[in-house]
Amino acid sequence: MKKLIFMCTIMLFLTGCGEKELYADYEHYDLKDKEVQYYECLDDERIKRTYAIADTTPENYESHLRGLFYQIGEDDYILLDQIEYNPYEESHSRELNIIFDNELYMIGNGSSAMVTKYTLNGAEFIKEELTFSYPNLDDYNLPNHYYPFGKFKDINLDYIYFGDESVTTRCSLEDYTCEYIGN
């Protein structure tokens, strides 16, 4: 009996049968004709995983969609999720997507969450739509065009930074409160 189980296990391993079936329910892409932003991070088992972000907007679609992909083979990516973004930005722009450890942050357009956090672990992920608070905004003499979550500038263990060339907002990754800190 042990020999039979061992032989079946070897046959499954050699044919790769389980691996293909594992991702059968996902949409597969090769991403060859797209502008792509690649990310690598370690999963829970300390294995390096590759993720990609690219435009997935269908033709004649009124909004713009950015896809989060996970690489399962050479030129084989599965679509994990999509988020709407502003059409004047490049979907793969590092100003709209930023990663720290195994957490990917993406800026949406308001129809989707303004900031979405993905905790990545292979093909599995946890999606969290973040809500930042901005106490004392009226205490600052801010430019009329100021929008606190326009683009990512930087991220570290404690804070995520948003803004443009003239202004910067620092937001806590612990309690999601933000403050204007200049440029």
Describe this structure in words.
The protein is mostly beta strands. The chain folds into two domains: 107 residues, no CATH class; 52 residues, no CATH class. It contains two helices and 13 strands. The strands form three sheets. Strands 1-5-4-3-2 form a five-stranded antiparallel sheet, with no helix packed on it. The protein has a four-stranded antiparallel sheet with strand order 6-7-8-9, with no helix packed on it. It has a four-stranded antiparallel sheet with strand order 10-11-12-13, with no helix packed on it. The longest helix is centred in the N-terminal third of the chain and has 14 residues. The radius of gyration is 20 Å and the shape is globular. It starts with a helix and ends with a strand.
Q: What's the short version?
A:
With 183 residues, this protein is mainly β. Helix content is 11%, strand content 43%.
